[in-house]
Amino acid sequence: MTETFTNATQILEPFRGVKKVTLEEYFTSGHRTCQGCESALVMKLMVKAAGPRTIVLGATGCMYVANTTYYTTPWVVPWMHTQLGSSGSAALGTAAGLKALMKKGKMKAEPINVIAFCGDGGGADMGLGAISATLTHKEYNSLILMYDNESYANTDIQASGSTPYGANTTFSPPGSVKRLMHTRWKKNMAGMLAAGHPECRYVATVDASYAVEMMNKVRKALSIGGPTFIHSLDPCPKGWDYDPMLSHELGELAVETGVFPLYEVEDGVVRHYGKSKAIAEGRPRKPVREYLLKQGRFAHFLEEDIEYFQAKVDEMWNKWEIPGVIPFWKEGRPR
For the CA atoms of 10, 15, 18, 24, what is the dihedral angle to 10 degrees? Predict the structure, then answer.
C-alpha cells in the first residue's frame, strides 16, 4: 500500500487579546504606501499572524508596486512577485513544490505557511479562475488573501468587479449626460467561493479596523489545512477620496452599516462574528449614508442614489438565505 505524504500545518492558536500579540514584525519599513493605507496594515497584520516560517507571494497590484522599490523591501520573510492574475497558480505551485521537495527528502519536512495575496483586480477579476482552481486541490496547504480596495489602485483607480455601485473612478466618472457610469452591484467574492468549493475548508471576510479578529482569522486559515481564502476590505485614501485619518473609521462603518459583513465559513458552517454577529442577531445597522458621505467618490450621489444603496444593503440582510452572505431565496418565499 502506497503511503500518502501529507504536509503538516502549523498550529497557530488565536491571540487572546491585543496584549498577547507577538512583538516581532515581518513587514517593516522600506515601503512607499500612501498615508493611511489600510492595505499596508493588512500586509503587516497578515504576516505578523503567520509568523517567521512563511513564504509570501505577491501578485501585481499596489502592494507589489509600493513594496518593491529596487534594492529595498519591507518583507522580512521570503517573498516573490507573481503576475496580476496568478495568485492562485502561485499558491498552488509553491505548496506543491514544497510538498515534492519534502517528500523526496531534499529539504526538511516541516510546516511552512504559503500565503498568496492579490488585489481586487487580480482576484475578483483577472485571477478568479486560478483562485477557483486552487481551492479544489485539498491536498495542498495555502492561503489566498484578497486585499480589496475596490479599484485597480496601482494603475490609478479604475472600476473592478469589486467597485461599489455608483463610485467615481477613472473609468466611471460622473458626467452631465450620464450621472452614474458604474451601475453594477459589487461581486460577492467570499460567498461565491465558499458556496462553490466544497473541498475548501475555510473562507472568511476580515477588516483591519478589527485587527486581532483579522489576525486570528489568518491563523485559523493557515492551521486548518488545504487551500483557504480570505477577503479583506481595505479603505484607500486615494481611491476613495477621504482624509487619511478616517481609514479606521471607514472600516468600522463598512461593518456597522452592513455594507461589508464579517463572517467565516468553516467546514460548511457559516458564522457571523464581531459586530456583524450582533447585527445578524437583531442589532440595528447604521444608515449607509454615514459611510457613503465621508467619501469623495460618492460626492455626486443624490438622495435617490443613497436610498437605492440602502435598499440593496437592506435586501442583503432581510431577504438573503444567509443574511449578507448567500444571495439565494427559498422557493415560494416572496422577494
Answer: -20
For position 296, what pLDDT does the model report? 98
| Whole-angstrom distance, CA of residue 252 vs CA of residue 285 | 12
Neighbours of 252 (CB within 10 A): 17
Burial (CB < 10 A; 0-12, 13-18, 19+), residue 149, is buried
Angle at 36 between CA 118 and CA 245, to 5 degrees: 145
Strands 202-207 and 263-266: antiparallel
- Distance CA(292)–CA(258), nearest Å, equals 12
Q: Is 276 exposed, middle or buried (0-12, 13-18, 19+ CB in 10 A)?
A: buried
Tell the burial category of 332 from Cβ atoms under 10 Å away from its Cβ (0-12, 13-18, 19+).
Answer: exposed
DSSP-assigned states of every residue in 286-309: PPHHHHHTT-GGGTT--HHHHHHH
* Grouped pLDDT means (10 residues each) for the chain, 335 residues: 68 94 93 93 97 96 87 91 95 96 93 97 96 96 98 92 97 92 96 95 97 98 97 97 97 98 96 96 97 98 97 95 88 72
pLDDT in tens, 102-155: 999 999 999 999 999 999 999 999 999 999 999 999 999 999 999 999 999 988
Report field, pTM of the whole predicted structure over 0.70: yes
Contact between 256 and 310 under an 8 Å Cβ cutoff? The reply is no
Residues 6 or more apart in contact with residue 273 via CB below 8 angstroms: 213, 262, 263, 264
